[in-house]
Amino acid sequence: MRSTISNYFTESERNRFRNLLELANDSKYPGERENALAAATRIAQKYNMTLDEATRWNPEDIAPGKNMAQQGSYQRPVKSSEVSNLVKNQQNAEAEKKLWQAAMDRAKDRGLDKAENAKKAAQEAASERRQNSKSRRNPTTHATILLKETSLSFEEISDITGLDVYKIITMKLKSRSAA
Asked: Could you tell me which of 173, 167, 172, 178 has the C-alpha nearest to residue 149?
């Protein structure tokens, strides 16, 4: 049995509760939704109410000295259906996640991920071969490409390709069109 109005939401708690429900309804992150819903549930439980009762609770209907059951103070605002839908959606998401995980486990038992693991291993081996490869591009061709496609200085191109700076300058002058 609930006693007086002092045992119910303060204005700041009502605002916090409402903000938590809006966050739980609007967030695109499942963890954030779960945490907001859990915090709102804790606030409602603090006053011995369910989440649905707390959303419908209206402070104007409580007169001092009477409890909520005597007053009939529960009014259904527009957003209480959203809370019910949110709770149902959360339960559906959890059930769907469990079903998906069970299906993945069954697929792994059948060996369906072996092909995926083999493909990843082949890609890693190819990547390793490329990184350890000693073959290099022809320095003259490499310098020509760097001259055309970058704004690197002659010294930087010389350091990259191993060619003499004067050879690179010669290549640049020869590549210019006659004016």
From this structure: 172
